[in-house]
Amino acid sequence: MVSHLQRKPLNEQRGEAKIVQEVMKQDSGLQYVGFRLIGLEPGAAYEETLAGDECCIVALTGRITVTEGEHVFAGIGTRESVFERKATDSVFVSGGKTIRVESVTAAQVALCYSPSLHPLPTKLIAARDVGSEQRGKYQNRRTVHNILPDSDPSASSLLVVEVYTDSGNFSSYPPHKHDRDNLPDESFLEETYYHELDPKQGFVFQRVYTDDRSLDETMAVEHGDVVIVPAGYHPVGVPDGYTSYYLNVMAGPTRVWKFHNDPDHAWILDRD
Ligand SMILES: O=C(O)C[C@@H](O)[C@H](O)C(=O)CO
Question: Which residues of the chain fall below pLDDT 50?
Answer without folding.
Answer: none
